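Predict structure. Chain length: 98.
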Amino acid sequence: MSLDTATVRRVAALARIRLPEEEVARVQGELNGILGWIEQLQAVNTDGVEPMAGGTPEGIASMPMRDDVVTDGGMAPKVLANAPDREGEYFGVPKVVE
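Prediction complete.
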């Protein structure tokens, strides 16, 4: 697959990349090179190759999960140790609404 200059300009516009006219040819060559590598990878025979664990739902389901427990963290004194102002276990901030 080869991209023409109009397609390169369209891709740049969709990606919101300002592409000066003198750069279009260079970017076109780079994108065509990337697409060439992708075509080369697609041509590789992968019959009999097991998928990696992260790419399958079974791999995701077998990952250990921690319990989802809500806590207050229990570290208020450590968190507030360097606070310039504090009120109990909270940061002290100046009033902004008058």
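Summary: Helices lie at 5-14, 24-42, 57-61, 76-79.
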